[in-house]
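Q: Structure tokens for this one, please.
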Amino acid sequence: MIFYIVLCIVVIILAIIIWGGVTKWKFIKRKDGYEKKKKLTIYFPYYNQPDVLQKQLENYSKMSPEIKKKITIFIVDDGSMKSPAIDVIKNFKGNLHIILYRINIDIPWNMPEADNLAFSKTQTDYVFCTNIDHFFIEEELNKLLNIDLKQGIFYTINRRSEDGIVSHPHPHSYLIHKDDYWKINGMNEYFSGNYGHDDKDFISRLKKKFKNKYFSDIYITNAGKDAAATGLNRSVEINAAKLNEKNKPHLIFQHKNKYQFLFEKIFEKYIPFTTKLKKYMKSPKMNSDKWVKHVDKVLFKDYAKSKGVDTAKIILGPFDDANEMKLKDIPENCVLKLNNGSGRNIGIKNGKIIFDGPDGPNEHFKGKLVKDVWNNIKKQLNDWRRPFNTGEEPWYSHIKPKIFVEELLDPVPPDIRFWTFNGKVGAIHITQNARMGLEHCQTYYDRNGNEIDCKLEYPKCKNQEKPENLDEMVKAAESLGEGLEFARIDLYNYNGKILGGEITFAPYAGNVEFKPKSCDIMLSNFWN
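A: Here is the predicted structure, written as tokens:
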């Protein structure tokens, strides 16, 4: 009997040891190994080489689905004027995950800045950086994808021509974790504008910081001299002198206001932005009083102030009931507002109503003197006190309805709306509407103010001007959106002063379908 008891104890101990060892091994692999989905970005800069780009895309699109699921082709168009990369990519029919950015300024040999842009935008942890005239055949890429990659190491491989002639590894062909790239501050844009030695400077700094692992049995193919960039001065004298400078500056993102997201084509099925938004709205965490300080129009003013952002001033109130207000106290120019919903506003100018409700001007009150319809106005305000769309936007149910009187911004400025994801601006749209006496229209921009091809239900505005202080507005929006998984932050640029408008967790009550599809993909990916 004792023997069997001892035997059982030994078996249990062995089982625990084995289980613990296996789970520990799995943890180490997850922590230090290649990322979960084992995806890799293959990045190269582009400059007026449409035929070479077409060849690159065709090469990767012919690979097996198993390979294509694991790779993203990331391209930065380095200011091509003659043959922009978008002209090739938008007509490409192959099935690949492709991302295209562009630097909207033509600087010769601006590869350092193109590299920095790519490594700041890549969606995978590991990136294989190379030139457009270098490509993988499927067999070699499969070898690369099966390496157990680790941070703290950068990887280099062999190189050969299409004829099979082996040559030395290419200095601008390496594989690295994107965090390691930034630990040495990326490429030095001090070398941009002239040929050569930019990659030599980078690799030298890389070797001082990290180990290099060289795979002599993995090859990238050189497409030959005909595929390289042409028409540019290849003299290395200027950059050779810069390389030898002892105290040379280190420059990054020199023209970030010129960066533009242009295109994303996906290989795998993506989740539409609206689907993610609806799921977000219905998640239990959103049915909480935690969000009241963000969405209550009165309390928002205190929240904005805590973030260093001003708002329009409250003149009277807040009131629990419209009947508490006296007509004699209502200013000639003001806005009557509710704190608990969207568009529950009545605008007054020179004692006349200029807009009413979310879509104003409303014919019921438009153009009428406040004193002539005061009782109707109070009734309307009290009707608006009812909870706002709490079925789909439950955060509003936690607001105690209040009525208040706010200063009128005259002339009414356009709404400048920032779509933020975990406190980072993904897109901006500027809206003009009937409250401004204009036809409703919208124009979309990336966070750097470059116009992007996005549309909801309204047409693009004509002659829309961006505010000169857009960079400051982005900072304000990101401050207000800090700690929020998703929020649209609405601001005004009023006579050069930034004013907070409101925070919306469910734009258009969640009924958002961006067109074209590339725009929806872009915003959906920001949520990732």
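A few notes: Confidence is low (pLDDT under 50) at residues 16-37. The chain is about 30% helix and 25% strand.
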